[in-house]
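Preliminary data (for renewal application), magnesium ion complex.
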Amino acid sequence: MGDDIMVDNICAIATPYGVGAISVIRASGPLAIELVNKVFKGKDLTKVKSHTINYGHIVDNGNIVDEVLANVYIAPKSFDGENMVEINCHGGIYVTNKVLKVLLKNGFRLAERGEFSKRAFLNGKLDLTEAEAIMDIISSNNDIALDSSLKSLRKNTYNLVSSFREKILDIMAKIEVNIDYPEYEDSVDVTHDYLKPIVEELIKDMEKILENSKISTLAISGIKTAIVGKPNVGKSSLLNMLLDEDKAIVSNIPGTTRDLVEGSINIGNVTLKLIDTAGIRESDDFVESIGIKRSIDALNKCDLVLLVIDSSNELEDEDKQLLELTKNKNRIIILNKSDLESKVKIDDSISMSALNNEGIEILSKKIIEVTEINSIYDMNDYYLNNTRQVELMRKAYCALLDSMTAINNLSDISLIEIDIKSAFDYLGEITGEASPDELITALFTKFCLGK
Ligand SMILES: Nc1nc2c(ncn2[C@@H]2O[C@H](COP(=O)(O)OP(=O)(O)OP(=O)(O)O)[C@@H](O)[C@H]2O)c(=O)[nH]1
Ligand SMILES: [Mg+2]
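Predicted structure:
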């Protein structure tokens, strides 16, 4: 790839694989309009205005392949900043592929994943946070996720990050002027006392964003929720109840679930990515013990634990161990089998009966309470949208903490500037203004084909 990325002409099916009323094939590149025009019977696409929809036929050696509408966008006023044609053909798999093949025979190559968006980024049409916002809109499952992604597409995240970069750049500029032109009278004297409150303020503001982002990233990407407990307490029954389908096998034989079973649900504005796990106990059974390892792994990686306990039996050691193991996690203790006589009492737990479909409202309330999802409404958009952004801001934050230590130690100002500059660069990676090439490539390959 490299430099030739902009000079070649790419195409891809932009709609999902499958049968529908229409499919859209995207074509982009300097010669995109001319090349499509060669296989288009209708108006001369090289002469039409930008942003027009043109009726015609795609032809292959004089044979009509399909009746289509061709949307023409002339550079730079297109999604990716290149000349573009979007061909709307009939939505059958065979016919769509046939139109695509005609393009591939006539000067286009197949686009890579996310290549249109990558071109948009390289042409300055999108920054990285906007590109991510597109992905997030596509994958959003609830109103909070959709709303934040749409805001990010309107540069909300970019502006948030840029406001920090501008402040940091201002400090760096003042330091440079001080070093290079100490005799210049109008410049402020950049002393340790001068820097301290400015850097302190930046650190405080970033802390707030990082704190808020713990919740916003969960709200946007969904909450990884592991259902754990000892065998036979009703974990799979709970999963099935929440998903409203018989997804996991339920039986009265302890050790029924051997592998992780997953499913996704929305509770209000919260998306839970549920994982039912194998009951955790000492086991000599080879397959079961692999399942149990996976359960522990899921437990460690999840954002929220639903710890299920069978309240119709006295607590056993396994329950006690799990209560201990999960005590520092976001967790909800569920006393299941509330239809039977209760023999267990635990503070701050909720009672449910997965068998009788009882307790879902109280669980929903508890989930919203424990995850603090609704606090996103009070954050005034002062948060980041995904873990990539959060990790980079955390690095920037640590670099500022280092600079603070250096300020307190009265280190040389030019040394302090090194830390400040690295905070500036980390923030630049969030927006893509200072991102290494490999990272950009890796990021865009997460996109769907045709995006
Ligand atoms: N009475 C009663 N029985 C229940 C309830 N929930 C589940 N059960 C029964 O408990 C047994 C075990 O249920 P599962 O959902 O398979 O339990 P599990 O925790 O997934 O078990 P493992 O996969 O073996 O770890 C089954 O016979 C269920 O019908 C409940 O709320 N009340
Ligand atoms: Mg099970």
